[in-house]
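## retry 2 of 3
previous attempt timed out at serialization; input unchanged, resubmitting
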Amino acid sequence: MDNAQIKQLCLNLMKADKEEDIINILEEVGYLDNQDVWRYYGDTQNNYSTIGNQQSRPEAALVEKIVNSIDARLMNECLERKIDPTSDKAPQTIRDAVAAFFEENPESYTAGLISEWTSSKRTEVARGITITATGYKPREGSGRPCFTIVDCGEGQTPEMMPFTLLSLDSENKQKIPFVQGKFNMGGTGALKFCNLQLILTRRNPKISDGNITNETDHSWGFTIVRREDPTGGRKSSVYTYLAPIDSDTNPNKGKVLHFSAKSMPIFPEGNTPYKRHSEWGTMIKLYEYKATGFKSHILMPDGLLGRIDLLLPSLALPARFHECRDYAGHSGSPETTVTGLNVRLGDDKATNVEEDFPIGDIMNTNGEKMSVAIYAFRKGKAGTYRKREGIIFTVNGQTHGHLTTDFFRRPATGCSYLKDSLLVVVDCGKLSGRAIEDLFMNSRDRLSGDELRVAIEDNLIEILKNNDRLRRLQYRRKQEQRDAKFKDSKPLKTILTSMIRKSPTLAQLFIQGTRISNPYKTTNVQEQDEPYKGERYPNYFKFRDKDYGHILYRSCHINIRCRIIFETDVVNDYFGREIDRGEFNLYQIADNGNIPYNDFTLNMQNGLATLNLKLPSACNVNDKLQFEAQVTDRTKMEPFVNKFVLGVLEASERKLGDKTKRKKPPGKEKGEGRETPSGLELPAWTEVYEKPSEGQKGWQDMDPPFNRYSALRVRGDIGDEEEVETDQSDVDHETYDYYINMDNIYLKNEQKKVQKDPDAMNACFLYGMILIGIALIHDEMQARKQKDLDEEEAGEFEGMHIEDKVETFTKAIAPVLLPMIDSLGGIETEFEDLQNFSG
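## retry succeeded, writing output
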């Protein structure tokens, strides 16, 4: 083929949207079945073992393509300026690179943060990286969409492609400090989710500056990557790419196709793909991508855009999304700029995020420092930003793993009422290289099970449960829910109270066992008259109620965390914000100098900073441990320094957070001690319907959704917390909310078959499920006490969470509940008749 024919072949492949069309094109030119023109990806025959063992989700694999495009743009700017990217003259961080290459004033303290850019500048820069959806639309039935990622980055020459875009396990970027993709994952992670991929690229001519080492250096190179099924005794698939040009040096390694053209239409315009020309750059097209979770319009709330925002919460450079499929009835713009979750949250903060959030905390675990940002969304708003992700861990702005919202269900967090409203972002950018390897899988889309993860989870629990703002919000949400439900609960309370009075067993079980108490002291939960308004930078940072410079002396049991409280006038997100983040460092003072201390958390809340630290494992009773805390930021000539001394006491009998060792209620005699519950307080209960009316909760509102067999689901909550001498807290009650499926299929069947009042049957089902749920939870609490389970074990007692136990058991008992109530209710009469007959 001549130059024009090769170029046309490339254009035909670009514009095709179906695998069968690619196959037909390749077959027509004689390439499809000719094994001599296909080269092993990475020049490795057993390459599936590497390529098939990367990202587990299609959107995570797609993110790697975007990361590579950002890297390519930064590399292009660096190389155009004739800077060696591995040298000391090159930017040393991603943010430094963005500041140096895309800012008018790179020395500004906000430089390098796209959150500070105007909308027009974001759009302008975003046009250099585009993600386009073409092909399949859901209304067409079968098929999958195609995604095309294009950038105006450095590009590659045809000769370089086997060693860059088509390589495996190479070290292309290992020594470049300002790029993200150093694990060689971006090029192959997406191959697991598509059978065919097109790569088209041209090196930026400005980089070579006329220095040509090969006649093809200014040509466009392109290839098709394909997955070949196991054949001929081969046990696994293999990935190959089209390389039909004979090599002069190695006949077994052909070269990719190439052609000359000043520019190519690789970028989209509006909803038209392949329209805007570029003289260089890289285009990658994924044919019929297995994106089962986001087949819909990619700009919709449930589309690809939202997932990318979450997986790239702090994008180094913005990108432009184009929906080029014609959706009937969609009148919005076909394109938008993706800036990452953090920018979206900042832009939407006033309407979607609770007041006084986000909260910025610090966590130092095993010597690894992380910053923590806690977002609390207003009711119903969290789904705009995330699905089941509750805690996301980021490195250089990319999500590397997450914990689900089930983390907030753990009793120790005290956040169960906020499960559907919280998002915690843990910035792991300062982790050491070894720690990153220990915490994350190489695929960068999930966490490992290393001991570092366990330690981090423990510290996150401490941060969440000790945050006063979260406690207040938890209490407010709980009260709002119960106020809404209790206004119509008088008949239920009357009936249950009557049942309990008639049954000594029920009275013993429920009145003593499941009273729902106010979870916080009234004096601790009253909202402030005016919102806290802190300073951007602290004017003071000292121990609470002490003069600055005062050395604090405290005692702490050797087996309990120590809590030190500082007061300041700075804003809540001082230690967690992107711009001008404050630095907190803790040192243990030793004879040979200050030693960085490895295990603590720091929580900021409305002028109070709470330091929570574990004592050193090597300390002994009666030791006097000296510490120095330092706080600084770019505005401080000298840090705030606070010194304190901890006297180590013998082990306390009661461990922090030990939920099995509760305070015993007082005896019958009057005296000190907490009051015995005097009556039944109802659990918060909600009726759930298949087709809810306005104001009702529906099956689809549940997570996961109810179905016709669902009966009862409970969601737990931490109850009354009481302060102890060590400033620690102890859980006194656990309370639960109850969700009852009033369209359970067995309930409906009984109402059809039995000639009884449907409302009465609804009531029997409702009351029965509540009583069963209370009994199961009570039994669980007793079992924990008997087993003396610790905090973590309690949540997984006998391999199943109590909430899952309740759901499973009530689903099983639902078919017989109403017949059992009906049948057993007549046993006494039948027994009397039988006795009379026998007499």
